[in-house]
Target: Response regulator transcription factor
Amino acid sequence: MGEQINILVVEDDNDINQLLCNIIRKSGYFPQSAYSGTEAMLYLKMKEWDMVLLDLMLPGMSGNEILTKIAEQSNIPVIIISAKVDQETKIGMLRTGADDYITKPFDIEEVSARIDSHLRRSQRINKLPITKRLVHKDIEVDTEAKTIFVQGKELNFTAREYEILVLFMSSPKKVFTKKNLFESVWKEAFYGDDNTINVHISNIRNKLSVINPDEQYIETVWGMGYRFKT
Model:
């Protein structure tokens, strides 16, 4: 049994709110009703949600304002469920951060399918490795922003140099042959062109030594290849 999936239902019409909660329960998830924008904001502050179903016309605070706040603070999937059918509203909501837009009156099976679909997608994204920082000695790489710092100073690497460095930092004890490096980074078969790899390794060493000339980061393992010096 997986973790409980909690879905916030923000809809001021009691009958529609209960109908949406029933759809959610039948799918094996856990709904929480909110009947105004203000109440919704309280629930959003209280705990983490896996999804929000959001009406636009609400007392207290509009669905549009709530969507803007959710989009600023998190990446929870938001499905708008609204009687507004005009294309302009729909496009506006999707641009603001909604993941989907369902118009009333809605088909129960469709709502159920779309909830499942967005939950699957968001859970797949959440299962991706969260490692965004690689650190070795005084080198720090932010793999999301693709930036490299040595002793807190940012270095400019080419895309290939960056990929080679990340490869070394991901497996600091491994000896990489030139064939390993070439096929991992260039994604092509290696035909013994040593020069390409040598030039890139030399460039990386030079750029690192500008900041810290006393440290040898990449060592040559004679007859085998290269590895990070531990």
